[in-house]
Amino acid sequence: MSSGSYFPPPVRGVEIPKGNDKNRKRLLGIPTVADRVAQAVVRNYLEAQVEPCFHPDSYAYRPSRSALDAIAAVRSRCWKYDWVLEFDIKGAFDHVDHELMMKAVRQHARCTWVELYVERWLKAPMMRGQEMVSRTQGTPQGGVLTPPTMLHTFLSCV
What we know:
It contains 5 helices and 4 strands. The chain has helices spanning 33-50, 67-77, 98-109, 112-123, 146-157, and strands at residues 11-18, 21-30, 126-128, 131-133. Strands 2-1-3-4 form a 4-stranded mixed sheet, with no helix packed on it. By secondary structure, the chain is an alpha+beta fold.
């Protein structure tokens, strides 16, 4: 991968129901097996760079942390505080600015081949049925790299 010769193929877009409302849909981007392996390599590298930047109370998509860990923290603190702060951005994956994402990746990665591949994955077209759709913003959910590292890398620099 360090040679820069890998080019990700288009991502297959699949709509799935979102929550209990069968009319609401979430678009998943299904990468190929080779793409998943390549994304795992980049994720492992980036995760090591970005992990120290997170607040200790950040639990989403973190290695060795789960929703149950977050619940345990809430339970222990509910006796100390009478308020709760929850952070959720509606459509965050759909509206990620590619240029801002790349700025964040460059700040943390400082590695040419990682930057190259992240940019290629961000810009890789999506196949929706038989139609090839180019992407200028957003990152599809469903890949190895997108949730854990990409969005948090982006948010840590905004």
